[in-house]
Amino acid sequence: MEISNTQSRIIFLILLILMLGIGYYLGVLRQQIAEKEAFETKINQLEQTFPPLNDVRALSGTISKISGNAITIENAQIGSPLEKTPPTRTVMITTQTKIVRQELKDIVLVQKEGAEYQKAPAGKAPPSPFVEIPITLSDLKIGDQIIVQANENIKAAEQFTATAVIFPKPHPEQPIAQ
Fold it and tell me: Is beta strand 58-67 parallel, antiparallel or unpaired with respect to 70-75?
């Protein structure tokens, strides 16, 4: 069986198209691998820039619901932006939970306390620029920005019991979030 000139041209054309197709596929595959490696390199760089937090015992958020002794907050991202954290959390309030409104002290008092601290022996805690005023759960409203603290790691917790709820009173020059 002899192959004619036309048949050999057809076979050659088919093989050429097949080889071009395989070459194109391998080129695309190589590009995808290079892009994946570049992406992984960027992720590794980000992970070094934003190392994961191992232990989170406080976070801030906006109150979206108050029901009984539970506050639901929509929280800001904590730690690395590469880590997934719950977008909302339920904070349980007990009779042991300290709830306070934090207000800025008078600047003259802060300066006086700062000067006294400078004279104090080492080991003494620096003065706080805030005064904490006890409030109750009923004083909090939906939309308030709060800070919650716990005695446990709450990094991934969707529900936890708060040891403290702090409502920072906005500075008079700052707009109140509504």
Answer: antiparallel
d(CA 29, CA 3): 36
Beta strands 98-104 and 130-134: pairing type? antiparallel
Instruction: Quote the pLDDT of residue 122.
Output: 75
What pLDDT is stored for residue 76 in this prediction? 66
Residue ranges making up the domain that contains 36: 1-49
Whether residues 43 and 102 share a domain: the answer is: no
How far apart CA 59 and CA 55 sit, in angstroms, is 11
Final residue before a domain boundary, out of 10, 29, 49: 49
Strands (E) in the chain, as ranges, are 58-67, 70-75, 88-92, 98-104, 130-134, 145-149, 159-161, 164-168
Residues of the chain with pLDDT under 70: 1, 76-77, 79-80, 121, 171-178
DSSP sequence for 152-168: S--SS-SEEE-SEEEEE
Q: By the 8 A CB rule, do 54 and 75 touch? A: no
Within 13 A of 34's CA, how many CA atoms are on the CB side?
A: 6
